[in-house]
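dumping this here so i dont lose it
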């Protein structure tokens, strides 16, 4: 997704922009994949809580993203033609930051937490 957003942000003409759109479309099912992976690591008693938190975070970030990208587009228009893709460059940076933060998730910690929850249920 970051590569696609970067292509869109830097595209001087329609060809690279179409490639960027195609690359970004590969991330269309990301939320479903994340929900499936989280379901594997959460006890059945806590799945509804985790889904609720994920939905709240998704709603909050969507509400913040609209004004953020609107403002960055306005700034890009003021800076000139070369900066029209500024919202997509910001999106590429945020997706790249998310990827880096995801690298710090440790499987052992999640597995040990599941084991602790199951031990307390007995």
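and the seq i came up w/
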């Amino acid at each position: 997704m970051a590569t696609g957003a970067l292509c869109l942000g830097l595209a001087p003409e329609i060809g690279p922009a179409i490639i960027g759109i195609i690359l970004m479309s590969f991330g269309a099912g990301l939320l479903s994949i994340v929900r499936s992976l989280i379901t594997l690591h959460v006890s059945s008693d806590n799945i509804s809580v985790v889904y609720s938190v994920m939905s709240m975070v998704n709603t909050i970030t969507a509400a913040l993203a609209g004004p953020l990208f609107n403002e960055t587009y306005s700034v890009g228009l003021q800076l000139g033609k070369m900066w029209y893709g500024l919202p997509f460059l910001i999106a590429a940076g945020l997706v790249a930051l998310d990827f880096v933060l995801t690298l710090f998730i440790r499987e052992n910690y999640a597995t040990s937490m599941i084991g602790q929850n199951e031990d307390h249920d007995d």
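The chain has a mean pLDDT of 82.
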